[in-house]
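Encode chain A's predicted structure.
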Amino acid sequence: MSRLILFALLGLFMPAQSHAQRPPTTIAQLRGAYRPLLIFAPKPDDPSLNLQLRTLRDSSRALADRNILAIAIPYNAPSPTVTRLTEADAADARRSFHIAPGDFTVLLIGKDGDEKFRSNKPISIDQLNQIVDAMPMRQQEMRQQPH
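Encoded structure for chain A:
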């Protein structure tokens, strides 16, 4: 298991002072290895954001099995997730995916870098698993995994 996923599994949340110790990443760096789940929110204490992060935290094993990496992107605020984007990449993601500052949006990006799913409300782990498991690349991964 990669170090990046291990950090995500150990704690979806980190204290604010720990963010300085963890370098931000870019979506391009994740391409090919992870399926980023971008969670856009108007602010870090948004109720939908908190519900989505709780759901994901309770399902960390399923996320790891599917190489899903949750990244919260509250508008003009630090991310409450272990993995965070650079400020430039977060702003670029908002622009390129057409996310308004006041919107809550969950966006699943495939390992190929393309948008695979979008919702304006929190997504259940079952729905997320079904979406990912139906992807051709995931089907191939499941065939290659030892039983």
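The two ends are 17 Å apart (CA to CA).
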